[in-house]
Amino acid sequence: MLKRYFQICVKLKNIFIEGSVFHIDRAIEELFKQYYPILSPIQRKITDLIMRDPEEYTMLTITECSKKLEVSEASLTRFAKALDFKGYHDFQNSLKSNLLNQLTPKVKMEKTLQKSAASTNRIEKELLKDIETLSKALQTINHEQFQKVVASISQAECVYLMGLGVSKSIVSFLDFRLRRIGIETKIFTSGGHEFMEKLLPIQSKDIVLAIGFQRSYSEIITALDYTQKKGIQAISLVENALSPLARKASTSLIVKRGPKEELNSLALPMSICNAIMMEVTLIKERRALETMEQLEWINQTYKRYMEEN
Fold first, then answer.
1. Domain boundaries, the chain
2. How many C-beta neighbours within 10 Å does residue 43 have?
3. Does 2-101 carry CATH code 1.10.10.10?
4. Which of 237, 238, 262, 267 can pair with 130 through a Cys bridge, CB separation 3.0 to 4.6 Å?
5. What's the CA gap between 220 and 199, in Å, rounded?
6. Taking the complete model, does pTM exceed 0.90, yes or no?
């Protein structure tokens, strides 16, 4: 029994470190090691499957988990209690917390710097990495969803652009390009109560475009809950189809920027957003040209006044 126990522990650890982007935090890993020998066959099955892709199971409800794992909800509850948690939700929150601890900016920067230290040609390495990411996207991008996003933006009276953290730069880019073709925008790049209050004027013909990658901000999730309640269309640009933003949006584009444990560039989401803007501009060509003519008149008038003064 003891020999078998250590074999299982080694197997579980290898699954995590070699078979997945993530490994379980030391505390959770030790918990699995401690309880695995006394778990029932069904509970061991649950453990093995969750460990292969722990991130996915932090985003599913207990009902969705039970269907995916092909076990009952009662079995999941008993599994969590066997690990000394109050219930499955308690276990899920602990797993989520442990995984998030591995994705802090500090940890990601450390991992990225460790990998980059061995490189002698930094610019070549980073450009090749982006080329690889863009090449993979060509094979995986959902063209039907892409066209839905284009159509929704083209028909909207106002586009509510939401993005916190690193997504702010994409929001700024989209805001600039949309205003240039005469589409009204409202940007949400600061969290807190101000974020929520700016939602109040939203109307049925408006749309929300929410951008979020590894981290899901409560403000954006709340905003999508509100748009669902109001029957307003929402689009999300995310890395994971199971993320809260994707699940609450009516249309989603999945953009995988690269390994989650590293600092990744915005080359891919920027390229996709640029493609969206090109398509929208073609659809709104007349309005775009009229807007640019007006902008040119304003710029020329302003320049003349500046020269006179």
1. 2-101, 130-284
2. 20
3. yes
4. 267
5. 11
6. no
Counting beta carbons within 10 angstroms of the beta carbon of residue 14, is it exposed (0 to 12), middle (13 to 18) or buried (19 or more)?
exposed
Q: In terms of CATH, what superfamily is 130-284?
A: Glucose-6-phosphate isomerase like protein; domain 1 (3.40.50.10490)
The tokens for 5 are 């126990």
Q: Hey, what are 259's tokens?
A: 């390994």
Span 140-191, pLDDT tens digits: 888 899 999 999 999 999 999 999 988 999 999 999 999 999 999 999 998 8
Q: Note whether 213 and 239 are within 8 A (CB).
A: yes
Residue 273 · residue 173 · CB < 8 Å: yes
- Mention every residue, 6+ apart, whose C-beta is less than 8 A from residue 17: 23
Type and span of the H or E element at 126: helix 122-140
Determine the distance from the C-alpha atom of residue 288 to the mean position of all C-alpha atoms in its chain, rounded to a whole number. Answer: 31
